[in-house]
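Lesson 9: reading folded outputs for more than one chain in a single document. The general rule is that every protein is listed as its sequence immediately followed by its structure tokens, and records are never interleaved. Here is the first one.
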Amino acid sequence: MTRVTSYCRTVLDRADVGYAVTDARGSLLWCNRALGAVLGVPVEQAYGRSLPALLPGVPEVPSPAREVLAPGPRWLEVRCSRLGDDLMYEVVDVSMWRDRELTVTQEADALRRAQALGRMGTWEWSIREDRVTWSDTLLEMFGFAAGTAFDFEMYAQLVHPDDLPMIEETLDRALKTGSVFTYTHRMLRPDGAERVFECFGEVVVDDAGAPLRALGTAHDVTQSSRVHDELVRMAEQDPLTGLPNRRALTRALEKELANNGSGALLVLDLDNFKDVNDLRGHAVGDRVMRMLASALQSRLGEKLIARLGGDEFAVVLPGASGRDASVVADGLRDAVAGFPLAGIGTPARITVSTGLAEYGPGDSWELVLANADLALYASKAAGRDRVTVYEPNHYADTVKRVSVLDRLRQALAGEGLALYGMPMVELASGKTLGHELLLRLEDNQEPYLGPADFLPVAERSNLILEVDRWVLSTAIDALVAEPSASLRFNVNVSGRTLEDPDFADFVLDVLGRAGVAPGRLGLEITETAAVTNLDAAVSLATRLRQFGCRITLDDFGSGFGSFVHLKHLPITGIKIDGEFVKGIETSDADAVLVSGIVQIANGLGLSAVAEWVERPSQVEALRRLGVRVGQGFHLGRPVPLRDVVNAERMPPNGALSSRVVGAEDGARS
């Protein structure tokens, strides 16, 4: 049996197919060398790392074959199945299979048409004569006239220098094995334009197996490559600042730790940024945020800086000692403190608090980020505008202050969470059409924590998944308690929950058991969360909409390419970002934008709700522009859920507010 076991291990280690076993959370327990090569991490250093972080796109639950596009690019076919309490993965590189299918199925006539209509060129290399023949279409794609004398050396001079070694290695391997091959490379044409070409080829051999010639095709895929790069950028880039987002940071940090890297992580939080928003509005706040992000990035050079969300950033410093990282952090603190705000028209001064945590082999990215957070909290507690290096006693200090996560867990276990309903009102009649449910922490502990205090912390951990499920279950319980069809709720879904593959099943199961009409429940997804998790958002929205639930894109207009998202997301409505609404009576630009949004929504059959309605004059302006429904302090303040359920009708209270709905009252649940 020992010999058989040894043979099995040897076969698995020599197999071209990648195999791995993870625990239920995705941490690698074992993998063979083929999978280590796919991950780019030595096998012995991969154990304990998160497979979904190292190979984004792999299923996190048992799943039939799924194709995943990996860096290279390479197409991988991934299967996930249960192995006792753990998960087993089978990863096959199917790139060459796809290429072979394409090559074999194309007939000569189709190839000629492809060259003429699709600008796909062909080439043939006579190996013994060392002569390359290029089709006229391909020469024109390269930027030369048909019939131009063009050899491999001229071709190599135009190829991007970073891509040339890969091409030479691919061709050399194909000549030795006689196999089909493919590669994608960049080329700088004589006119200065950079193009991207995808090449497929095969080697023809004689009876003895010696290569006679190689032939293949080249297709200009510049546009599709740019679209792919844009999708990747949107998935891992903060739409406001253009910096990498939390997902990109955790992936980079996990990769660094998987390779036994050491260094330091900085977490920075802007101390007084709320003053800018309060004094000058969110448009100015966004502009300042972009300028600050650019200034920090310029100061750091090639080092990775990411925006974690809100006014929080993180910096990864590979190879840096604690002393070196402190110097960098002090420099960033000085840069923020000296940032010129006078030209922006506000006297507010922005400072930054920083937490610093060192990392090394054996650490996990969750631990490193948690340590940096604890150091950041210590900086805040010590008076802000300072750098604090993580020390073990910070944990004890945090426990003494009663950690936010502990309070949230206790609130979930007891009755410390509460929902408040904010009415969505028909502007013409004052009739309440539904309520958005907002989350509050009411655990009778000090200090008081508003949504802006506890939600960002929850979103850094898996606790937000439990919070979102509690909100949804509580909302459905209330709908059961009051079966009136006129009682309709909207609940907010976090970006982390979008990535939960079981959430859609959970929603459908709870609705089904409760017997609640699906149309009485709506889910709100912020535009930023939808863009960051576009595939997950489309999947969730598609399933729930098919069942009859309403899906609303919240804060519409706040992100990059807002109108583009309407093509991809199967939504039923949008909420017009309050930034366009708060000055609607006086700003011609806001009026034009809102009018355009309403026309597009009407054309697509979507409902449109205006946020931040705080004055009677806004109501009149919005009605003139065709907006039917609004939400804000003038139309109704948030009230406890039990009062919403008990009330037969919730008319607008007419309250005027000098405040802008912010993190406290406009926060998502």
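And here is the second record, again sequence then tokens.
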Amino acid sequence: MSAPPFPRVLVVGSGIAGLTTALAAAGRGLDVVLLSKDVLDETNTVRAQGGIAAMTADLPGGQARDSVALHVRDTLGAGAGTCDDDAVRVLVQDSAAAITALVQHGVAFDRADGPDSPWVEGLEGAHSVPRILHAGGDATGREIQRALVAATLDAEASGRLDVLRHTMLVDLVADHHGSVRGALVLDGDRLRELRADAVVLATGGAGQLYPHTTNPAVATGDGIAAALRAGAVVADLEFVQFHPTALAAPGCFLVSEAVRGEGAVLRDATGRRFLEGAHPLAELAPRDVVAREIVRRSLAQGGVPVLLDCTAMTAPAGAGHAEPDTAEHLARRFPTIDAAVRAHGLDWSREPVPVTPAAHYLMGGIATDDRGRTSVPGLYAVGECAATGVHGANRLASNSLLEGAVFGARTAEALAGDLRPDDVRRPHWTRPRPTRAGAAATADLRADGTDRTHPAPTRGVRRHPARLAPGGVLTLPNPAGAGVPFDRQAFQAAMWAGAGVLRDGSGLEALVHRLAALRPPGALSRPAVEDRNLLTVGRAVAAAALHRTESRGAHFREDCPVPEPARAGRTFWRRARSAPRNGHLPTPSSYTHNDMFERISAC
């Protein structure tokens, strides 16, 4: 194409957040290069079944009973006192515009009776009114991904942006001022340095920290780990949401919260609805409550999974059924889930199916303001890898797709304002080089003078953490070359046992020391880079969870089961300034040092 030989904005990630940012930035005249770790639709977005929450009262066919105040209240309630109120209000106020933009991109949300009829808006856990838009029944994320990918391919074909597929972020590149000016990426067997005036991380979450997850294989925390190495501030990493109802079968297929919203119930091995006495909302309680009760009940019955019972569900009155049929209704309303359940030989219209909690969403991430800016100049983050503060300690169901759409557009707007033509540096692309094992490839790149360190910046985030909290430094010693070789399966099992649905101080301490003893792999390959990223993020999650000596939202400690009002605030962390400083190239020696994190207080 005829674009300049360098990108001005590098967007890393191809889910709703990355695609929205890339399309909006390109629409504002910026030179955009989009990186996708795999194919464009290998994302968490495509797996989203439940829908997208939005305040649609002012849109044709919208929910007249909803309001900004009501959606804000529900979000803050689920967030358990740790949301950023201003960010939540931005999320809800901008939601109508986000839905309008998705429709303009071609997303076909479900309607009651034809193109001009009202939208079908569902009710999910902890929502006061039905405000969840769906597409294709339980295929909302797939429809959104389809439409945004189509728009992206059109933009690529017309020369408005570039797309690099099967290209993995390895690390960020900073200049001598500490500003991010590009990224080091792995493109097949080639190591490439891509220069840019700004980098937007939209790399999604880190579900692969755990053995049971609804996330795709690409969700290995790449953006968060790279941001930590670059000195960026992260926030709220102790808050990991476990979806209560993944099918207890290989693949952990997610059974959407919308199924419970439409009448499914949870039963123990005796057939009793055990959630009725645990929470006033029973099966529609916040996800953390449902997940904990499922784990407790399963443990109490010897590890046998609990059961999701949909056998009494029928089509609503007036839906055209003379005699409502459960099987027909489930197949039409939840076609993706129906096919997945039946693929395992289960007929969920006739018998309850076994379910288990699975790692689903990371509320924490790279700390940003409400326009995607991080604490590192030139670095932005959006979507699940970012921590805007909208989710607090426990994400409200179906707010995640909305966050990607709202803050993707806002980040693009910020980029257009922040990158002024007279300030733009015009760096070059470096020639792709084949990787070689060990230090040989390292020396080859460093000979070009491309190796830089990442000084810890001190500006760029709203209410930026400015000073150390007393006693807030966590040091995990691990001499270079020492330690137990990293094994992903053993690592995931340790994370599940120590920082899973149920936690306690002794388990977290044991996890911290176990992770400190691990030696990450030194190879330069996609699996090795993923493993290093998982270990970095896992250590940060364990540190944050150990520090929060209370239970709040998705973070539940059996030794501290009651929330403490004094600890309701958010927690901010960064790599300790005394930690070894590595260049942007991940060499074997770069990753033998252990991670050291310091907690910092917000201004």
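What the second record shows: The two ends are 46 Å apart (CA to CA).
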